[in-house]
Amino acid sequence: MEETRQWRLASRPVGEPSRDDFELVTVDRPEPGPGEVLVKTLYQSVDPYMRGRMRDAESYAEPWDVGDPMQAGIVGQVVESNHDEFEAGDVVTGTLLWAEHAVADGDELRPVDPDRGPVSTALGVLGMPGVTAYFGMLDVADPTPGDTVVVSAAAGAVGSVAGQLARLNGARVVGTAGSDAKVEWLTDELGFDAAVNYETEDLSAAMAEACPDGIDGYFDNVGGPITDAVWPLLNVRSRVAVCGQISLYNATEVPTGPRKLGKLVESRARVEGFLVSDYDGRWGEALDRLSTFVREDEIRYRETAVEGFENAPDAFLGLFEGENVGKQLVQVAEYES
Ligand code: NAP
Ligand code: FER
C-alpha cells in the first residue's frame, strides 16, 4: 500500500496559533471510489479563515475536529480517476485536504488549463481570493470614477486584486500594508495612488494626508486601528465592504464594539459584510474578467511559496506576521506534463 502524509489539527490554539497545534501523520494513500478522483497536491493554499475553523465556535464554516485532517484549497494533478471528466495527468483545483494526496468527488473539482498560465493562480488571483476581491469591490464597495477607495492588507492576496479593480474603475486607491517593501510594490507596480505603512506611520495623520478628499469606499480586510483611522474620513454616501478582520483573529478578549456609529448618521455611509460564498454560481463571470485583466497586464499579482509539505504550518502562521506578498502558498510537488 502506498502512503501519503497529512497535517491534522493537534489542538485548538488560544491566541496566536503555533506549530504545536499541527500534527504531521503518515497514512495509507486513499483509493478513489465510484465518481471519485485521487489527486496529488502540487500547491496547497493557506488562508486566514482557517484560523476560524481551528476554533470550536459556530461560524459560516464548520469547526475542524481535533485529530482530523484539515481542509484546504488545492491545485493538484490527477493520479487516478473514476470520473468521466478527468483522467490521470489532468490538473484540477478544489477543496481537498492539507495532504500530499487526497480523494475528491469529481463533481466538486474544477479543471485547470496548464497552458493558460501558472497553475498556482487557481488558488490566488484566479481563485477564491480573486473572486472575493472581485465581488467585494465591484458589488459591495462599488467604486466610481473619482472616488477615493482605501484597501487594508492591500499587499495580500485579496487586497492586491481589490485595489487594482478599484483603480480600473477609475478610483483613487490608497492601500495599507505592514512593510516599506509592500508599500513600494503597491505604488510602484500596482498603480496605487498612495500606500501607508501602518507599522511605522501615524495612521490617522497618514490616512488624512493620503485621502485629502475623504474616503468614498473602504475594503476592509483587517479592522482595528486601520478602521479607526478610516472612520472619521468617511464621506457622505460612502460604502464600507467588510471582507475580513484579521487583526482580531488571534484575539483572546473580544474588544469593545464600534461606538462611533454616529459617524454613520452624519455620513449616511453603508457598512456591509459579505462572503465569497454569497457569489457561488457567479465564479465564471469573475474569473473570465480577472483572467483577461491578468493577460492584458491590467492586474498584476505575486505569490509567496513556502517549499515543502512539511512546512505548511509555517506558511499558515506567516499570514499573521505579514510574511506573504500576494497569495501565500505551499509548494508541495512539481507539475509533470
Ligand atoms: P492576505 O492578505 O494575503 O494575508 C494576510 C495579511 O494580513 C498579511 O500578509 C498581513 O499583511 C496582514 N495582517 C496580518 N495580521 C495583521 C494585523 N494584526 N494587523 C494588520 N494586518 C495584518 O490574506 P487573504 O487571503 O488575502 O485574506 C485577506 C482578508 O480577507 C482576511 O481578513 C480574510 O479573512 C478575508 N477573506 C474574506 C473572504 C470573504 O468571503 N469575506 C474571503 C477570503 C478572505 P501586512 O504586511 O499588511 O501586515
Ligand atoms: C467561503 C466563504 C468565506 C470560503 C472562504 C471564506 C473557502 C473566507 C472568509 C474569511 O476569510 O473571512 O466559502 O471558502
CATH 4th-level superfamily of the largest domain:
Medium-chain alcohol dehydrogenases, catalytic domain
Low-pLDDT stretches are: none
Strand content bin: 25-35%
SSE pattern: EEEHEEEEHEHEHEHEHEHEHEHE
Derived structural class: alpha/beta
User: How many H/I helices?
Assistant: 9
How far is it from the N-terminal to the C-terminal residue, by CA?
Answer: 25 Å
Radius of gyration: 20 Å
**Distinct small molecules bound, one entry per kind:** NADP nicotinamide-adenine-dinucleotide phosphate, 3-(4-hydroxy-3-methoxyphenyl)-2-propenoic acid
**Overall pLDDT metric:** 97
Under the CATH scheme, the architecture of the largest domain is Alpha-Beta Complex
The top level CATH class name of the largest domain: Alpha Beta
CATH topology (fold) name of the largest domain: Quinone Oxidoreductase, Chain A, domain 1
How many distinct beta strands? 15
Describe the protein's architecture and organization.
By secondary structure, this protein is an alpha/beta fold. 24% of the residues lie in helices and 27% in strands. The strands form three sheets. Strands 3, 4, 5, 6, 7, 14 and 15 form a seven-stranded mixed beta sheet that branches. The chain has a six-stranded parallel beta sheet with strand order 10-9-8-11-12-13, with helices on both faces. A two-stranded antiparallel sheet has the order 1-2. The two termini are 25 Å apart. The model has no long low-confidence stretch (mean pLDDT 97). The structure holds NADP nicotinamide-adenine-dinucleotide phosphate and 3-(4-hydroxy-3-methoxyphenyl)-2-propenoic acid. The site of NADP nicotinamide-adenine-dinucleotide phosphate (NAP) has 29 residues, from helix 2 and helix 3.
